[in-house]
């Protein structure tokens, strides 16, 4: 039976990796998810076949509860709420690992008679899993707007407090690994780690949420891998390391896309509200307004149109209307492409997922560098709800909090049309200088309604 289980694990790992390869593009992503899901099902079955497995009714109850909660949530969630769901479900994984570490502590009487590496791996999993769970809950709260998206700090005490909480968690863990078996110590590990997770994510502003989600996802994977070492469970080790490694790579890519270091992001304070010096007095400046009819005419006589999607498009669920608009323009012989910033939206790949849902051809989605080289030859750049990722202040204003962040150079286009509800700021909490550019026209209103109006005007031309 042990040999048979090992063979099943090898098959599961191969499916994990093959499924992950499918996630590199929208065309193969669904198939990749199904392949990886089959691999996980095989891994679960293999684990249940291990000798000594019991408590079948309890296992069935857990599977039943997870199915009843998870399946409807995943089927009914709107694409705009997908980042929140990712944050919440990821946090649940970290919380599960932390609880397993607590159970292992109790079952082994404080890791008595267990090898030292088992205690270290289990305690590491407890700390990281707890941080991931509580940090993910804060990320969920900010994304769901249950908590303010602005940085929430305790001022100059923030970093010293974080150091104290982390030190407390590690000290309790060291005491346990040294032979102490008081249950208050493992509770201390979990509570100190929980507070540390809260204190780390609360000061992080909304502008950094895509990076935070990716970072917490990586931490959950690492905690699962560590628990796999403690339990001698190969499936947990491999699956956890795949998640941890891919999440770490993605976090690094997201940080580079914002020209920020991961330590600077963890330090917090970027995006979501006014600066520490108080509200900034904003000078009233004129902007040019336009209508759906004028926007349609402008694009109908263009040779090349670039659509720049942002979170506003996601909120309005305008991706299908955008696809219809693009089809009408292409039928007129106009070249249409989509400029995708790596951190547009509220989670990595958010815009790609939305546009793929509307069956936008993958070849039309252009990465930032490729798009920036095409903007000088673009007649019309249509910005739909994107804000900070198009703000020229990132290049021109050394005092701007986003200075140095790579942006989409939409201001290099011959003309720009911005679809927004209002002149409100983005995650970074600052004005977008693009709105005041003489080449920019503002079409105010709900993005889906505005694009639908443009579609009707294009049909009438």
TrEMBL record:
Residue stretches making up the NADP transhydrogenase beta-like domain: 6-456
Topology with respect to the bilayer: Multi-pass membrane protein
Membrane-spanning parts: 6-25, 32-50, 56-74, 86-105, 117-140, 161-178, 184-204, 211-230, 236-255
Record EC number: 7.1.1.1
One Gene Ontology cellular component annotation held by this UniProt entry: plasma membrane
Top EC group: translocase
Keyword Mitochondrion carried by entry: no
InterPro entries assigned to the protein according to its UniProt record, in alphabetical order: DHS-like_NAD/FAD-binding_dom, NADH_DH_b, PNTB-like
GO molecular function, one term: proton-translocating NAD(P)+ transhydrogenase activity
Predominant cellular place of this UniProt entry's protein: membrane
Record field: catalytic activity: NAD(+) + NADPH + H(+)(in) = NADH + NADP(+) + H(+)(out)
Name of the protein this chain belongs to: NAD(P) transhydrogenase subunit beta
